[in-house]
Design a protein that fits this description.
Blueprint lengths: L4 E6 L15 E5 L4 E4 L7 E7 L12 E7 L9 E7 L5 E11 L4 E12 L13
Antiparallel strand pairs: 1-2, 1-8, 2-3, 3-4, 4-5, 5-6, 6-7, 7-8
Length: 132
């Protein structure tokens, strides 16, 4: 089973809007031990990175996998929504994640995410079991 959930980082702050701003760039770790590294956002709000999952429903060796994503333009509240896809290098599947970045009063950043995984199946008849 692949995981979403809680990702923890440290707020970078800054910008011209008041209060701490959520910055997706950097290294993130979740409660299951998975690691994700995200690049800086470009002018369009897109980013790339890598995902190293700590858990998977496979006996194959787990490999670091590329991701591509986009963030909504930050609001004045500084807690933007985002989404990204991971193309797994060790399985015939792709996972889409959506979430929101939260910054608490102490500047601690947390990403709350949900995911949907689709694996390749041999025929359309098997599609019912391809998504989880």
């Amino acid at each position: 089973k692949l995981e979403g959930g809680l990702w923890l980082g440290t707020a970078q702050g800054g910008g011209t809007t008041p209060g701490p701003q959520c910055d997706l760039q950097g290294l993130w770790r979740n409660e299951l031990g998975s690691n994700m590294t995200l690049s800086a956002l470009d002018a369009a709000g897109t980013f790339s990175g890598s995902y190293h999952t700590a858990v998977a429903a496979t006996n194959k060796q787990i490999l670091v996998s590329p991701l591509q994503g986009a963030q909504q333009h930050p609001s004045t509240k500084g807690q933007p929504t985002f989404g990204f896809t991971v193309q797994w290098q060790f399985a015939d599947s792709t996972t889409a994640f959506v979430g929101q970045c939260f910054v608490d009063r102490r500047g601690k950043e947390t990403l709350e995410t949900m995911w949907l995984l689709r694996e390749e199946v041999p025929s359309r008849r098997d599609a019912w079991k391809a998504t989880r």
